[in-house]
Every structure is written in structure tokens, then in C-alpha cells.
């Protein structure tokens, strides 16, 4: 293996020329200018393996339901067709000649806990996926609200790093007649939707998609009063069991259940009034499936500032969410064993009062839309 670091517009053409190698990759929709320059310099070919549909194909959608219908229609007319692996003959080269460009070994930063929850690689992705297909075939179903994680795929990190393609997931799962298949595939379409929106709104990582929310008084740069509250949220010490459980799960495992992600994000942006960018950046730093498009898209969806955002008045009550989705308390007990004991603090802010304040602030923004 040859390892090199630096500007791909310089490195890739140089190595390809020295080896006499052809260059090919799955398209990267956030680095199209860079990849176009590499392609021009090398004569490379690229393929649409990272998404189900190309973001420049057809009209851009701002609402998920019509987008989903369009994707289903497109895939019905031209379903993904897995291709056989290419026959690649290894080059007989002396990698020592590239040693001056070799990257230093990366430090092993992951804790033992994180490592036990994350198994990277294509083999791990395929094993996880086919195990889940067997789960569906046995009638297990797909439930994105199951906090145990037994009824979700866990494929998001593998999709993030290209270790399994959404086309392969679609082809294999859509051929299976079992409950839960469509619910699972709907999540794959949602991922495509995030990337389509990012392609057309590339500054969504730092700016509100709905400009009216520029007037919303979130705590952000220049104001340090909120940083202590932000730190409590990051550490899972908010006094709200479900939120704290999710944040501690994130730190220990590099992931967090989707339902809890929404609750934790709602608590930060709506109850605490802290800017969604703080949450987006923390998730980017800690999630193993942190995705260039999905991360900011989903944060703006919860915050209310995105295209297909949750209604501004939708503020997740974390106490009711816990009663509904963790009625036995097993999820909270696993990550916050001190919950409901004298050692556990009261919520940082009153749930009802903070919701009322958030609604008043959102209504002011809403009235200007």
C-alpha cells in the first residue's frame, strides 16, 4: 500500500503517472471542483456509488415526500445493478521509492469502549447488513424508535465511509418480501435527500437555510455565558435522563440512537437556546457516522431552520419521550445509572418553562416568514 498526504490535485496525478495506473473513484459531491481537476489531469473515471440518485439529476426538491416518490420512481425504472468486482492485477512496484511521501502511522485514539462498538471495513458492513436481512426475513421488523438498537441496521458508519453502497442495500433489501423493508429503505432515501439539499445549498454547514432564522437569538460566538451549559450537555450532565444517556452513549460508542439524537438536539437548541452549530460541530467531532451532508441537514431539521424542517412548534419533551420509548428504563439505566437517585441533579432548566420561551421566540421568527 502506498500512503501519501497532501493536495490530491498534485499527489494523485503524480503517483498515477509514475505507476502507469488508471484512476477511478466513487463521486464526492462536496468536492466536485477538486475531483474535476484530478479527473482532467489523469483521465480518471468516476461512478455514482455513494448515493442512490445523482443530486444534479432532475429538479431540486425542498420537501422529502415528493423527493422520496421521485427516487422510488427512478429506481423502479432503473433499479441498481450490482457489478462484479473488477479483475485487478497487483502492480509489481517497490513502495520504498514512495517512502518520503508516506504518512506517519496514525495514533490509536479510540478508547477500548469505542473500539468494541465499531468494527470498520467492507466485510463488517456486509456481515452486519446480511444479518439484518435475516432479522427482517424472520419477522423481526425495522423500528427506528427501538432504543435497544436490535431493530435498526447500524449501517450509517459503513455508508459514511463507502464500505457498503446504498445501491447494494436497495437491490438486496427491495428483493426481500418482509415487514420493515420499506421503513429501512426510507432512511436510505432520507440520506440521499440530505446530500441533494447539501449539493444545492453547500453553505448549510454554517448558515441557516431559512434566512429568517438569522434573527433567532441562539447563543453563539461572542457570547460566552452559554459555554458552561454547552459543556454540561456535551458531558451528559443536563439532569434530563434521556438526553444524558444519549450524550454518554455518544462519547463511549461513537454513535447515538436516532430517536435520542433528535431529543438531545431539541433540548440544546430549543430548551437551552444554544445555536445548532455548537451541536453540529460536537456531533462532527464525536460521531463515527458524522456525514458532511446529513449532520448539518439533520441539525437544521430539528432546529427548525432547514428546508424540510420539523415544524417550529415541535419541541421534544424529553421526559415524555423517555416514557414512550424507554418505558422500562433500560436505556437510561445503562448509560445513567444514577438517574432517579439523590445523586442525580435537577434539569438545567424547567422543561415546561423553557418550552414556552422557545415557542415565543420561534413565533416571532415564524411571523416574519
Automatic annotation (TrEMBL):
PANTHER family registered for this protein in UniProt: CRYPTOCHROME, CRYPTOCHROME CIRCADIAN CLOCK 5 ISOFORM X1
Stretches assigned to coiled coil: none
Residue ranges of domain Cryptochrome/DNA photolyase FAD-binding in the record: 185-338
Domain of life (superkingdom): Bacteria
Species whose genome carries this gene: Corynebacterium stercoris
Photolyase/cryptochrome alpha/beta domain mapped to chain residues: 5-84
Sequence similarity: Belongs to the DNA photolyase family.
Family annotation (SUPFAM superfamilies): Cryptochrome/photolyase FAD-binding domain (SSF48173), Cryptochrome/photolyase, N-terminal domain (SSF52425)
InterPro entries: Crypto/Photolyase_FAD-like_sf, Crypto/Photolyase_N_sf, Cryptochr/Photolyase_FAD-bd, Cryptochrome/DNA_photolyase_1, DNA_photolyase_1_CS_C, DNA_photolyase_N, Rossmann-like_a/b/a_fold
The protein's name in its UniProt record: DNA photolyase family protein
Cofactor(s) essential for the protein: FAD
Record key words, sorted: Chromophore, FAD, Flavoprotein
PROSITE patterns per the UniProt record, alphabetical: DNA_PHOTOLYASES_1_1
